[in-house]
Amino acid sequence: xxxxxxxxxxxxxxxxxxxxxxxxxxxxxxxxxxxxxxxxxxxxxxxxxxxxxxxxxxxxxxxxxxxxxxxxxxxxxxxxxxxxxxxxxxxxxxxxxxxxxxxxxxxxxxxxxxxxxxxxxxxxxxxxxxxxxxxxxxxxxxxxxxxxxxxxxxxxxxxxxxxxxxxxxxxxxxxxxxxxxxxxxxxxxxxxxxxxxxxxxxxxxxxxxxxxxxxxxxxxxxxxxxxxxxxxxxxxxxxxxxxxxxxxxxxxxxxxxxxxxxxxxxxxxxxxxxxxxxxxxxxxxxxxx
Length: 289
Fold this sequence. Notes:
26% helix
């Protein structure tokens, strides 16, 4: 995980076109309402992204992961600009299919439609509090469907483990044992096979990896990325989302040939729903601290 990016700040990193989003969502009136109601506050926009700096949690073994320096200052040059260097897989980031074989698609070639979709939030905070190595199985996904209906094609499935309560404490977030093996929850291969059958667009988690921490062969990465999914890792604030009802906008850096890169992820949902989901999720997050 030592892929890197280097940029000057005169260049834009990413952009989102709400007009494009409106055209993609045109057949779903409730989602149109979410976009239209942003300006008057009826829709809450939740940023699921950690700000990038040199104090985040890197993957074990990554010694150099982020650097920034001033290129120009107002006092000296009349303008402020910076340049920065970073790994592709650091902080809140996206894994493109090419990151693990047999995937071949780089981040700039992922079909744009996959970056917009309903959020499916699978909550395992109680299970994670009891077992840091917990794997979400197919039965857990099926139980979600019994409560909310079949997962729709194009959904983005997020695993809420409560691990965000440990961020950015490197020791607690990695949760390594005496041998250096990490321990945090993840998706099982069986669950991902079911989600592939549902034709979802991507997977996400509030941990370092969609595979559980103790994994050494990363089967979920191989399976999901090989099938054209992407992964969103180190997501923030999943506790504010309901299990269903939010809509996601995923905006990764468009880095030519990239194995992934930093990503800005937004969740849209009605304000009343946001307040209720935050209350319900709070107790589970406390359990994982």
